[in-house]
Amino acid sequence: MSDNSAPAGQWPEVVPLDEALEVPAFPTDSMPWWVADFVRAQSVASQVPEDMTGMLALSALSAALQGRVSAVAGSWVEPITFYTAVAMSPGERKSSVFEHVTKPLVDWELDVQALQIREVAASQQRQSELEGVVDATAAQVKKLGSTLRALRANELAAPDTVRAAMADLEVARADEENARVALAEHKAVHKMRLVYNDLTPEAASKALSQQKHESMAIMSDEGGVFEVLTGGRYSDKLNLDVFLKSHSGNRIQVDRVGRESETIMRPMMTLGLAVQPSVLRDIGKSKQMQGRGLLARFAYSMPQTLLGRRLSRPDPVANTIRDEYNSGTRAIAQAAYELDAVRLVYLEDDALEKLIEFQDSLEVRLEPDVGDLDPVVEWASKEVGLVLRISVLLAAARVRGVPNEIRLEDIEAGVAFAPYLEAHAWLVFSLMGLVASDDLKHKIMKRLVRERITEFKTRDLIHKLRAARAYSTEELDEVLDELQKMGYIKRVVTSLKPQRVHWIVNPAVYEE
User: How far apart are CA 368 and CA 51, in angstroms?
Assistant: First the structure.
């Protein structure tokens, strides 16, 4: 037998398994040039990772598009909106980034509101008049009802007088009914509001119902929306339904005791949130999140912090770069707002083939117990839709408006985000405690440590792992080579029988 108690200097430093996950860089280069330039420059100016600015810029594009587009890929129709959650610790200058990313949307919103002043005022006046008519007719019905009751109680009242009072009451009731119908049919015009910082679920449903296109965006660096998910503020079903249905444009019916019901035919919401990692950990403990599917609808990002490496005097964003970003985002918002109906945009043939190719490559990775994405299968099963949504957002940025078609370059750009999104989804679900560390490397090390194994042969390890599933020698050898590079084990070939390869385990893995 070989002795694995060699001096520590002969073993490389152990690389923690959870840090071994390869996390690709944020694909800024896949964004249209004016967005990419802004993401790079603003990240430098604010001294934050490009991930943060880039993911929030995608949310801004989604907010600008206002859900006015649905992509058609063959027989599949995907409504376009975007949910993202960026996990960053306190002191990471999230507020500064949000301010600059959302500025063109806020400025555009104010300009639209200025143009609406007369229309909104006239609507409010008409609303007040109709409510006054309802009150007046209701009072008349009450008055005539009292008169009729008094006449009927008076034995000396003439029959003709009673019949006349009854007729007057019927007319008054008809007038009241007509007044209430007119009030119900009046479509109140509210001032346009697109970007909100934080809303309760009830307020979100009300805001959606008041907007021309039943769309809105919550862009927040506080993460208040996620407090709902942990049960910190609310606990009824509606709290999740608003967010679930506003991701796909499904009708929302809100019924409340003592108040008129509220119907939102095609709610579309953008969520661009930056939250502390501790908030995400709490979400993993929330029972009401189990099986609801909301967390699977998010694109996640856990950027590497720049704390301790930030520059004191970074270069500011050049005016030309900021102006391009502001004007481009505003142009998309204006074009979407002017649409009278949702636009269906079709994938060109080569774009559709590229998306199908990506879908086929993804499908085999979802196979239970075998596919590498099986531990995050609920999220990964929606990844094709997420990639398509990003592709359409990038197409909107490419044309600075509402695209007429989705090209191959748009789908290729969206697919370029997939490795990044997969890695960060894994990181976030692990942080939440919703993904067990059960890939093959973890399984091997758990078995070795649990049984205090100091050396082993590949074929023996196959037998030990067979209870989970059958692994081939080639598959195990590949993973064992990775563990050797990470400092956990070492391949040893005996001098007597070179063909009898076995492994020894680094004693450091047993140290407390």
Answer: 31
Query: Is residue 390, in this structure, part of any structural domain at all?
Result: yes
C-alpha distance from residue 206 to each of 55, 60, 77, 215, 242 (Å): 27, 22, 27, 11, 10
Place of tokens 């070939």: 493
| pLDDT per residue of the chain (512 residues) written in tens, 0 to 9 | 444 444 445 787 776 665 555 688 999 999 999 999 999 999 999 999 999 999 999 999 999 999 999 999 999 999 999 999 999 888 888 888 999 999 999 999 999 999 988 877 787 888 888 888 889 999 998 999 898 888 888 877 888 888 888 898 899 899 889 988 888 777 777 888 999 988 878 888 888 988 888 999 999 887 667 766 555 554 444 467 888 999 999 998 876 555 567 788 899 999 999 988 888 887 776 666 656 788 899 999 999 888 888 999 999 999 999 999 999 999 999 999 999 999 999 999 999 999 999 999 999 999 886 788 888 899 999 999 999 999 999 999 999 999 999 999 999 999 999 999 999 998 888 888 777 545 677 778 877 877 788 888 887 877 776 544 556 777 778 788 888 888 888 888 765 555 556 889 888 877 64
- Classify 157 as helix, strand or coil: coil
Residues 329 and 423 in one domain: yes
- Structure pTM? 0.77
Q: Does one domain contain both 392 and 444?
A: no
Identify which of 82, 81, 92, 80 has the alpha carbon closest to the alpha carbon of residue 55: 82
Domain hosting 356: range is 31-104+193-302+317-432
Last residue of one domain, picked from the residues 143, 159, 185 = 185
Report yes or no: 282 and 92 within 8 Å, Cβ to Cβ.
Answer: no
Q: Is 63 a domain residue?
A: yes
